[in-house]
Write a structure and sequence with these properties.
Keywords: Cell outer membrane, Coiled coil, Membrane, Signal, Transmembrane, Transmembrane beta strand, Transport
CATH topology of the domain at 31-53 and 110-138 and 238-280 and 316-436: Outer membrane efflux proteins (OEP)
CATH class of the domain at 31-53 and 110-138 and 238-280 and 316-436: Mainly Alpha
InterPro entries: OMP_efflux, TolC-like
Structural class: alpha+beta
Number of helices: 10
Strand order of the largest sheet: 2-3-5-6
Largest sheet: 4 strands, antiparallel
Radius of gyration: 40 Å
Shape: elongated
Distance between the termini: 38 Å
Number of strands: 6
Pfam families: OEP
Strand content: 15-25%
CATH superfamily of the domain at 31-53 and 110-138 and 238-280 and 316-436: Outer membrane efflux proteins (OEP)
Subcellular location: Cell outer membrane
Protein name: TolC family protein
Length: about 425
């Protein structure tokens, strides 16, 4: 009977969703990675970091400026010669017009330019790692929600089956109540059980819809309430994970550890930038200009000059009061970055051990619950036969039904919990993107 009810429910559902696209976990992930706003933002930030890796941004290239200007001065000139003769000229207006190209180039700055370029490369790598962390978090979150949706739909089918059993029991009790085989108490109890199962079924519909909304939100769908037809009707767990392999992959490819390595490298480059002030610097200045001077009161009415100019500057900062303090602090920042990385590795080892223990326990629990489900199913079939023959009371029948539903709920919870542990282990080991394959 149960298979008959589930077949009808599945047929109705397939008929309603036949015109829709059928989603697998991989297609959900691919669509989400393409449309999800957080992923798109992280990719844009990664592109910004990549665009910043240029010789000009590091300070390797010269700067070339074109400038022009005009100035005028209105004055009154008073003169006195050695013989005591005095003269005065008012309304003198001097003018200056200039234009030119100026080239500035730092040839050497204590290896600061080379360090800046390496820093930009590290920031680009850090942007890639941050984007990877965002993608891995998204894949883990959507995968967990996908299987939560599968779990909620299975639970909905179980509750629908419970409603069908209660309805059939209520029909039998009503029929026997009319001929006097059952009391009114039996009838009322059967009706109460049917209403309770119906209430559970209605509440479960809300949970299914909530999970559907969350899935559509993660996939950045235009309508969060849009129906979603998925292929999976069971939660399949991977029971072949190995702790040693997971630990090895974690130490090699975990994105958070890679980010910590990048931060340590950046702290080292910050120290090198400060140490560049210990060296001399060499700067080149060159230009080509034109200047016109007009004089309001002078033996020469105007003067024009044009041509190139070249100069070089060699210098060194002898003392600025902060150099030693800043370098000491930079060394401490390097030590802190290394300690942070070690702390993170220890935390990840602890998380891996915790999830591995939970994963193994849930696998054992899953085997046990599978055996319990077989026993509960057989017990319910026997109880139904006895109930139809009148050898079993309604309360006893309800207990057999409840045992079956509880066994189904426990195995479903064990499957989902095992899957969550599996997802967490794959993410810690840096292998979460395997769900895209």
């Amino acid at each position: 009977m149960r298979k008959y009810v589930l077949s009808i429910a599945a047929g109705c559902l397939c008929g309603m969703l036949s015109a829709q696209q059928t989603y697998t976990l991989q297609t959900c992930l691919q669509e989400g990675l393409e449309k999800n706003y957080a992923i798109r933002i992280s990719k844009n930030e990664q592109q910004i970091a990549a665009n910043n890796v240029t010789a000009a941004n590091a300070g390797r290239l010269p700067s070339l400026d074109l400038a022009a200007g005009y100035s005028g001065a209105l004055s009154e000139n008073r003169t006195e010669s050695a013989e005591g003769e005095r003269g005065s000229v008012s309304g003198v207006y001097d003018q200056t017009v200039n234009a030119g190209l100026d080239l500035g180039w730092t040839l050497f700055d204590g290896f600061r330019v080379q360090t800046n370029y390496k820093r930009l490369e590290e920031l680009r790598g850090l942007g890639e790692v941050n984007a990877r962390i965002a993608i891995e978090d998204f894949v883990a979150g959507l995968t967990a929600e996908y299987y939560n949706y599968v779990q909620q739909k299975i639970r909905l089918k179980n509750f629908l089956y419970a409603v069908s059993l209660s309805k059939e029991r209520l029909r039998i009790v009503e029929a026997r109540y009319r001929i006097g085989n059952f009391s009114r108490l039996d009838l009322q109890q059967a009706r109460v059980d049917f209403n309770a199962d119906s209430s559970q079924y209605i509440n479960q519909q809300e949970l299914v819809q909530a999970s559907l909304i969350r899935l559509n939100e993660l996939m950045a769908g235009p309508d969060v309430n849009a129906p979603l037809q998925i292929c999976d009707s069971l939660i399949r767990v991977n029971s072949r994970l190995e702790e040693g392999e997971l630990l090895k992959r974690m130490l090699q490819t975990n994105a958070s550890l890679l980010k910590a390595d990048r931060n340590t490298a950046l702290a080292g480059l910050d120290l090198k930038t400060l140490q560049a002030r210990n060296y001399p610097y060499v700067k080149l200045n060159a230009g080509y200009g034109y200047q016109l001077n007009r004089y309001g009161n002078n033996a020469n009415r105007q003067r024009q000059t044009w041509g190139p100019d070249v100069g070089a500057t060699l210098g060194i900062t002898l003392f600025d009061g902060n150099r030693r303090r800043e370098q000491r602090n930079a060394r401490i920042q390097i030590e802190n970055a290394e300690l942070t990385r070690q702390q993170l590795e220890l935390s990840l080892r602890a998380d891996l051990a915790d999830f591995w223990q939970a994963y193994r326990n849930n696998l054992e629990l899953l085997k046990l619950e599978e055996e319990n489900l077989v026993a509960a199913t057989e017990n319910h079939e026997i109880a139904m036969e006895r109930y139809l023959l009148g050898d079993l009371s309604g309360i006893e029948m309800r207990e057999a039904q409840k045992s079956l539903l509880d066994a189904e709920e426990r195995i479903l919870s064990a499957q989902y919990n095992t899957k969550l542990c599996e997802i967490s282990l794959q993410q810690i080991s840096g292998n979460i993107l395997s769900y895209l394959e």
